[in-house]
Amino acid sequence: MIKINICKAAPIKVETRPVTIVINKNLPTSEVHPGALEITMEEDAAILAGVLFGTLPQGTLERLVIHLLKKRVSIYRGVTRS
To answer: Among 31, 57, 77, 81, which one is least packed by beta carbons within 10 Å?
Structure first.
């Protein structure tokens, strides 16, 4: 298991509790339910976003979004419109 330690947000009104994120489930197949894959990905993304938004310092969260977008854009490099 990969373990990383990241700074949590400074408390404003209440103490920011540490969070453990475990990534170990397999995605469902379309055989289970036609939309199961999309539903699972949407739910997982919403949960992860909520937890990160509530625990990371704002500056870290903003930089994370930038890094994620840069990585996503990089898969389209070299693709041109016909």
So the answer is: 81
**Phi, psi at 31, each rounded to 5°:** -70, -30
Sign of the Cα torsion 45, 47, 48, 49 reads: positive
> Which pLDDT tens digit goes with each residue over 20-41?
999 999 888 767 777 888 889 9
Contact 28, 35 (CB under 8 A): no
Residues 56, 9 contacting (CB under 8 angstroms):
yes
Paired tokens of 46: 């919403």
What are the pLDDT digits (tens) for 44-73? 999 999 999 999 999 999 999 999 988 877
How far from 55 is each of 18, 37, 39, 66, CA to CA, in Å? 8, 27, 24, 18
Characterise 20 by phi-psi region: left (phi > 0), alpha (psi -120 to 50), beta (else): beta
